[in-house]
């Protein structure tokens, strides 16, 4: 289909312009002040975006759709996840592939892609989790890169679950990634501190309100510092997923002042809600790792977003139904995670742009351009450049909604932001030239999404 979007305000990561966009097939054909009739194909749908912002489709750089873990599977499978993403203006997600038992790394990516193919209604890229080094890690990473997966994730915690990797193999992973120009991303919580804290707790089971005490922000501080130093010593970048605390941000700032290239992501939940929710009835709904912190942490993280120390907001969308969540009241065994992809845009717009912390260009940077650059998807994704994929979000800033358990689309059946008044909404969403959301109705197709082969992450260089 050919589409002309007119009368809108085009927003990139650094400009706002009154321009028109012409889309033909899957691509942005041209961007002009105005098109003359002679420029336009005859078969054309015209979208009047008057009073709206027109921006590149959003990217949620951290999702877990269809995650099989601890003997269960998350509520939002690939299709459900991609549909709710479209409602939130998101046209690309980056999900995680498990490191399969006794298999090479690439096997995880291949398996995950075969499961997602035919299901995803939006595009996706993949990160690969590494939980052990047993063979030629350089060769395994090279194979992964060949497949278009250029970022890996390692854990600094979960020793007892077998996810933790010791110092020596970690160094091998960093060194191999440096040579290949790949990004190491880390889940930063120091396992020894968490173990020590656990020993001090005498209650059993561990109630949800104890998780911020056990997995405290000092654990985040130490892990960010330790792994950041490894990256610094090798003169390579590092990416911190879901930074949760003011102390974690202190570690980031200290590393940056020492010259380490740290790319940092936080999530809407660490920015807006607090561990007060873990002290109340239904606390399980708000349990994730790292845990929710204090209001002062919310504030510090917004400060980090404004200063640029945090350059990406993504969600760690990982959902369980209330039935799954309430199977346990012990913070060690409650299924961790909350929904987020759908709510991300409205929360960042309301608490970031509407409250005057930054303008709409910064929102595009945080939710689209920077994640695309960080993970080798730019400018095909994350820009409105002619010739690139026509992934477009038309955003109505005037809409007002209250987020409610019964008006979001996650199969979890609840939102962590129930009752929150938000401004703005995704009005029209276009994926590679196809309208997948219009007038509050999902129009996309199961299986229409495609796997994106990522290039080199922006901060990385081939060595
Ligand atoms: Zn995650």
What's the structural blueprint in terms of helices and strands?
Layout: E1 3-6, E2 9-11, E3 16-18, E4 20-24, E5 27-32, E6 45-48, E7 53-56, E8 58-63, E9 68-69, E10 72-73, H1 78-87, E11 90-97, H2 105-116, E12 123-129, H3 137-147, E13 151-155, H4 167-180, E14 183-187, H5 191-200, H6 211-214, H7 217-233, E15 238-243, H8 246-257, E16 262-266, H9 268-272, H10 295-307, E17 312-313, H11 322-325, H12 344-354, H13 360-374, E18 392-402, E19 421-431, E20 434-438, E21 441-442
Parallel strand pairs: 1-6, 2-7, 8-11, 11-12, 12-13, 13-14, 14-15, 15-16, 16-17
Antiparallel strand pairs: 1-4, 2-3, 4-5, 7-18, 9-10, 18-19, 19-20, 20-21
Helix pairs in contact: 2-3, 3-4, 7-8
The structure holds zinc ion.
Residues 62, 64, 316 line the site of zinc ion.
Largest sheet: 8 strands, parallel
Runs in which pLDDT lies below 50 for 5 or more consecutive residues are: none
Q: Could you please say which CATH topology of the largest domain applies here?
A: TIM Barrel
Q: What structural class results from the helix and strand content?
A: alpha/beta
Assembly type of the chains comes to single chain
Strand ordering within the main sheet: 8-11-12-13-14-15-16-17
Distance between the termini: 43 Å
Q: What small-molecule ligands were found? A: zinc ion
CATH architect. name of the largest domain: Alpha-Beta Barrel
Whole-number average pLDDT? 96
